[in-house]
Specification:
It contains 15 helices and eight strands. With 395 residues, the chain is an alpha/beta fold. The protein binds zinc ion (ZN).
Amino acid sequence: MRLLGLVLVVLLAGCSGDSGAGEAPSDVAGKAGFTKTPQQHAMPKTLLVSKQTPIEKARVPPIDFHFHGGDLKTADDYRKLVAVMDDVGVAMIANMDGNTGERLDRTLELNTQFTDRFITFARVDWEGVNEPGWSEKATAELERCFRAGAQGLKIAKNLGLTLQNADGSYIQCDDPRLDSIWELCARMRKPVMMHLSDAVARFHPIGPENERYEAGMWRDDPDGNYYGTDIPNHETIFEHRAKMLERHPETTFVMAHVASMAWDLVRVEKLLDAHPNVHVEISARLQELGRQPYSARKFILKYQDRVLFGSDGDPPRGAEDFWRPHWRFLETDDEYFDHPAQMLSPLGAPLQGRWKIYGIFLPEDVLRKVYYENALRFLPAAREAMRRHLSAVEG
Ligand SMILES: [Zn+2]
């Protein structure tokens, strides 16, 4: 049996190499010595007997404040997703993929049939960022997007990690070219959903001591590991974020993925204490929160007005292995269960952490805040639809 397993690993490891990802040694800077290692297995089936709370729907209907609806192209795509939302009890989705220009217009057009369930966020068009006049142009286009119906702005992690100045240095969020964008969002009262930096393990060396490597990442390819490259370190990105926040106290920022600091909640507390205009969203960090359930629970109870639910999901995500584990984490005191399967290795290892999580059994008044009340503070256009939804499901 053991031998068979080994043969399978070797075969599958070979397969994934053939299918494209990193057959040749990578030329990523600083990764010259990278060698492939066997893929990590799925977690063993636990023998622990513990309480399993079956949850079909969230206890109160959430607004998923972080969803990627870029693949929603037709009314039928929307209808299919709405069916899953109804299954799991999600009231509304904030689609981060509204984009700008014609793409935004098309999304808003399609959305007119689904305004009770979908809210669209715009993006910044980085094209020509190093050309004179870009800032004015990008700000004017964003204003047009807001007036057309976009309810917020999504900033992705390329700001800070990949966008570059003409001299090759990296563009950070406190760049003066962006001031007018943050000011516009303050003036028009649109929240900025901001994903800066990345999972901390990506900034640490690849090797057995790195939790993400141990979980199965970078076994084929060092892509997405920043250690030893010229990409700015997470601490550098955080320093720029602090400077930007100093200059823009009137802008509402929702920092995605627990401000990319879920591995150190004391630092998240300091960030929230220093900047009353900052909030956090929990998507793609249940693996971090759920392995420190006592601290996570205390943190969310303490900052219950500033934590928002999001999943970072996209249309193919299933209900069972994706949305429902979020409910289980937030609502129950279940122990030692899988975190939402956002990324799996070819053999089924959870790439975001080879461990299980524990529920934090938030009380219902706090659940309501995290699931939708905090989001509604920033989304006035969604309040009426949410009221209708609540009266339909709660009577
Ligand atoms: Zn996102």
